[in-house]
Amino acid sequence: MRVDQYLPSIVPHDAISNHTLQLRKALRAAGYQSDIYAEAIGGPLRREARPWAEAKAAGARPAGERAVIYHASTDSDMAGWLASIAAGGEVLLADYHNITPASFFARWLPDVARHMEVAREQLAELAPAVRLGMADSRYNEEELIELGYRRTATCPLLVDLSEYHQAPDHRALARLRRARDRGGARWLFVGRLSPNKCQHDVIAAFAVYRRLFDPKAHLTLVGGGTAPRYITAVRQMMADLELGDSVELLDGVGFPVLLAQFAAADVFVCLSEHEGFCVPVLEAMELGVPVVAYAAAAVPDTVGDAGVLLADKDPLTVAVEVDGVLGDESRRLALIAAGRARAASFSLERTAPAQVAAVASALAA
Amino acid sequence: MSPARDERWRAAAAKAEQLAPGYVDRVRLAAARLAAGPDRRGDLRASLATVEETARVDLDAPTLSRLAAGRGLKEAVKRLTRWYLRYVGDQVTAFGQAVATFGREVADRTDELADQQAATAAKLAALEARVGQLEKELKRS
């Protein structure tokens, strides 16, 4: 039996793209033939994926010959085509990674907001055609149920955590350790600079923490941005709050440098308002960095009881919580241990066979 | 909030007032300005706020790169073109501010006309009621 995967774009250093590659590996290991098709294929992945146009030209296959998994996270012309081949008898499965609500982008990127609205409409239209809706988190699964998906399952993103134990960039690590020796707690957040990830709230909490508890503290925000106006506003906010070089925005960071950032961090602070899973939180837990996070969207599903989850993210509240973690060594160590145990529950050895089993049971239904 | 947490929060709030009066409120305000609000498309004042936000041109282009040479090249280009970008940026900023000023005047005038129209509609309704009343009285007599 063939189980192919379709996604709008596959690019390096992207959580959904990595998940798709891991799922293909797991499907092939389970005896399925499996290929990946994408509308846009990022340079180095040209050998891994095939253009969607190729599949479209070949047309639908006879019922029972192939099943198709559609990775939903943005709008795509693929959605309509997949619905049409499902109507012709092919089995269609969805893997939902969440669609950021348009309201987060309306002010900063109106065009993107419109794309997000279309994506949600497409997701709803696909519901009757999909045999199984898989979701990265319980939060995502509830959205599918609300949209009318009859059969659903939670299948966490497939992340190869063993990759996080390679050596960090030694130069970056040495520089960060020298900075750390000069004193001051090191806050870290990793994620695209985007309005839904609320880096402005992290900066606000950090500003209060620095003023009240630790004048030498440092914040690093790793992640490129696609919303230039939001980035400009964030930088302006940093200047208005006179944070000087205590806040660093890093873009274009390679994986070994990212590992160095985690190795030097004292706390990972996530105040995002919308996440479908939040891989960086999992990375922090795996790498022994205590997590303080705002309990929104899928973040509580990923963190579980292995981090400090906040019901509100007022800057003073967050600063007090971070101080509570960093000022209490036994609590900090307990959070690190709980984080590692939690991350282990998302290991590929557990998640990949579970997702393949979910696919198999849907095909047998 | 647990009692211990609550106690720590109150102690921190007191410390903030002592060390830097008003600072936490200033930070809260700065963060609130960037918060995602409800979808405000179609709202003239919200669109105007967007024009004002975008009127300022950020000339500090990011120069980070995965390659050291790439970073050096970007830094060099940035330094070489700074005078030119500032010259163009100042004009774009001035244009943006002029558009924002124009937009504010249009919004003020629109609000004024909307108020006048509402007042006229109310007067018209009162006159219609009065005419109706007079017509009834005329019929009775």
Note down, in words, how this protein is organized.
- The complex is a heterodimer of chains A (365) and B (141).
- Chain A is built from 14 helices and 13 strands.
- Chain A is of the alpha/beta class and 365 residues long.
- Chain A folds into two domains: 2-159 and 347-364, Rossmann fold; 162-344, Rossmann fold, CATH 3.40.50.
- A seven-stranded parallel sheet of chain A has the order 3-2-1-4-5-6-7, with helices on both faces. Chain A has a six-stranded parallel sheet with strand order 10-9-8-11-12-13, with helices on both faces.
- In chain A, helix 6 runs parallel beside helix 9 and helix 10 crosses helix 13.
- Chain A is elongated.
- The mean pLDDT of chain A is 95.
- By secondary structure, chain B is mostly helical.
- Chain B folds into two domains: 1-35, no CATH class; 43-140.
- Chain B is 80% helix and 0% strand.
- Chain B contains four helices and no strands.
- In chain B, helix 3 (44-54) packs antiparallel against helix 4 (68-140).
- The termini of chain B are far apart.
- The relative contact order of chain B is 0.06.
- The interface between A and B is large, with 45 and 36 residues.
Give the tally of β-strands of chain A.
Answer: 13
Rounded to the nearest angstrom, the radius of gyration of chain B is 29 Å
Distance between the termini of chain A: 15 Å
In percent, how much strand structure appears in the residues of chain A?
A: 15-25%
Give me a quick take on this structure.
The complex is a heterodimer of chains A (365) and B (141). Chain A is an alpha/beta fold and 365 residues long.
Walk me through the topology.
The complex is a heterodimer of chains A (365) and B (141).
Chain A: E1 2-10, H1 15-29, E2 36-41, E3 50-51, H2 52-58, E4 66-72, H3 78-87, E5 91-96, H4 110-126, E6 130-135, H5 138-146, E7 152-154, H6 170-181, E8 186-190, H7 199-212, E9 218-222, H8 228-240, E10 247-250, H9 255-264, E11 267-270, H10 279-286, E12 291-294, H11 299-303, E13 308-310, H12 315-326, H13 329-344, H14 348-364
Helix pairs in contact in A: 1-14, 6-9, 7-12, 10-13
Chain B: H1 3-19, H2 23-34, H3 44-54, H4 68-140
Helix pairs in contact in B: 3-4
